[in-house]
Amino acid sequence: MTAVLEAQALGKKYGRHWALRECTIDIPAGHVVGLVGPNGAGKTTLLKLAGGQLEPTAGEITVLGGRPGGTPAQLARVGFVAQETPVYAALTIADHLRLGARLNPRWDATMAEDRIARLGLAPKHRVGKLSGGQRAQLALTLGLAKRPELLILDEPVASLDPLARREFLQGLMEATAEHEFSVVLSSHLVSDLERVCDYLIVLIDSRVQVAGEVDRLLATHHRLTGPRLDPDRLPADQHVISAGHTDRQSTLVVHTDSPIHDPAWTVTQLSLEDLVLAYMEQRAAENRRVALEVQR
């Protein structure tokens, strides 16, 4: 499968602090990819490296087969919408569209103007007077009208109310269906990713914990509930992601490609949020074990 973003041992350091370190990742083309992980996982740094806004300290990264931001032509192929939806408060919507046309050789003026009209926004309005949701929609319009092959969205709806989030994501879904470009969307709101993403990557401590098509991931991860059991006694093809125990009962999240027929277990399916939390809990437990070993 063709990759829109590939990184090998990628790292970014600020002074003595590594914001991203030894990150190896392969993001496929033709998907709306959800990138999720805890604060400090390196998601924003990775996306800014992909957008050409930062230069790596170590390792390699390619986007659409080229160096991020290496040439004007390469920059034109990638759209970027940041968490703060950067727009200029003193300028009007029309000013933003004119600026977009001057800066982007693939600019689609008709798309931009039609989308602004459908949103009910007046071109003469100053952006500083718009609501947060309207500013986010303007930023998305600027990203879409660039006609990118890859659109990167870094927490674009984090500060929006539920209705504004829904409208933003609906606009994104409509655009991807109509224009068929790749998307990488970072968010802490897994419920939003569940609505729009067909591919998921969980990034924790700069490492990919799991990656794959959402339908496939949900089909191969299960919650098992039954009598207390040492997870080491499970069949070898059932990989334990997280485990919880009481005196009498065990609750496990396992990854397996095989059907589970053991009558001792009650098997239930996971939501996408359940799956993400299981991997985050696994990593947190590993970090606690390492910390205890160091203390000893």
TrEMBL record:
InterPro entries: AAA+_ATPase (IPR003593), ABC_transporter-like_ATP-bd (IPR003439), ABC_Transporter_VariousFunc (IPR051782), P-loop_NTPase (IPR027417)
Domain of life: Bacteria
PROSITE patterns: ABC_TRANSPORTER_2
Keywords: ATP-binding, Nucleotide-binding, Transport
The UniProt record lists the keyword Calcium: no
GO molecular function, one term: ATP binding
Stored Pfam families: ABC_tran (PF00005)
SUPFAM superfamilies referenced in this protein's UniProt entry, alphabetically: P-loop containing nucleoside triphosphate hydrolases
Domain ABC transporter: 5-230
Record-linked PANTHER family: ABC TRANSPORTER ATP-BINDING PROTEIN ALBC-RELATED
Protein name stated in the entry: ABC transporter ATP-binding protein
Organism, as annotated: Sphaerisporangium corydalis
Lineage of origin: Bacteria, Bacillati, Actinomycetota, Actinomycetes, Streptosporangiales
